[in-house]
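Hey team,

Filing this mostly as a record. A colleague (T.K.) asked me to run one chain through the structure pipeline before their review meeting, and I want the input and output archived in the tracker in case anyone asks later how it was produced. No errors, nothing strange. Just documentation.

Input sequence:
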Amino acid sequence: MMIERFISSYLPATPAPCKYDVYFDTASALRTAAASAEWTDEVHQAMQFLSKRVEISKHLYESYHENGTKASTTLLAGELQPLALTLLFKDFCRLADDGKTACAVKRLNAVLKLLDSLASGNIPVEPTLVNLIDVEAERFLTRLPHADTPPSKTLANTQAPVNAGTLPITVLFWEGPIARAYLATLKSMGLKPEKIIHLISKNDLVSRKPIGRFLPGSLKLAYAHSRQKNSIHYWSTTIRKTESSLYQSIRNTVSDKLGFADKDIDEALALCDLSDYSLDVETLMIENLADSALYERLLELAQTKLLFTGGGIVPKRLLEITTLKFIHLHPGHLPEVRGADCVLWSYLMKGRTSATCFYMAPGIDDGDVILASYLPSLTPNLEVASMDVRTLYRATYAFLDPWVRSYVLRQALIETAGFTQVVACPQTEDTSVTYHFMHDRIKRIALAQLFAEPLPH
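Output structure:
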């Protein structure tokens, strides 16, 4: 078999000494897999472990801790990386042949990312192997079964079904299209959160350098807020100007299929002062969500629910504050669609976008589910053959993803009487699948399906 020939050619004649002081020795795991004619469960688990590492970091390191963090900052030796690529590709082929589609597409995601990493690192890979990966990837992606998950129930009245007035939650506001869509949704329902905590980054979001170090307090705060707002909304502003047909197509879809009025969408884009949405707004400058200033401030809050709007991974110690419950809107049906890029993974794997309102807990999209919903069909039906995948991706996350989340936020508010009558259910782990950021080649297929128009290679 051709794959076995590549494995033999990439297996070093002289193996490196085993590392006995680490949980996972990458070179040793690769040698074991390469030498095994029939893979044991242990080898399968090792391939799954390595695949996840590549999906997350795009690289492989010499060794890892049990929780998956790298135990060494040294990349896997260059001569072993093509072997890793070949073994992961072999595992992808096995999973695809066995009809384990979700596992196979995740393994392919790792293969394509590692192939890119080898190319950028000038590590040679036999052209015949590259061609084989290219052919099999195309065959698999073009033959992906198109699921047709039925939509969840829709609500007849979405305009003002909750008693208008103060909503007993605190919005942890991180500037961006998601946070703006949430506030516009609340306003459309006649609701005002009792408090907004506006988080402003002390550092530039691109350079990571401190902002306005020599400015006095009030000027520094205003300047940092302006920089953050301009940075986060850069692509949404640019795409509205340069790709008006794309923007308008998504906007019409949000209005027609998700039931958000034009004034709601305009409200989110207007970037109004936060005082328009709550009588109690305070600002807090932080390094990141792990900043002690944020922890100390949240400790002072009376018992409440916090609507999380973004800004990074919420540290465990924040989630463990007993007086608070963090509410998050995830753009995937939990637990079947966990992780990153889930507005696309949901469409690719389930044939429909979805979202879940849930209480956050430590872990990736863990926590009890308040409401999980598959949305109505959203295909914008726009001719996108000439459009760059990166532009389509940015537009999807600027103009569609926030309203997918807001659709379920609105549903959850209605069904729980403004989060005052919540019955949350634990997630069932046996159905969970965690996805990671998509490789561009898989994005192309997902976006083609989402926009119902083939994209170029």
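Quick notes for T.K.: The chain is about 45% helix and 15% strand. The radius of gyration is 24 Å.
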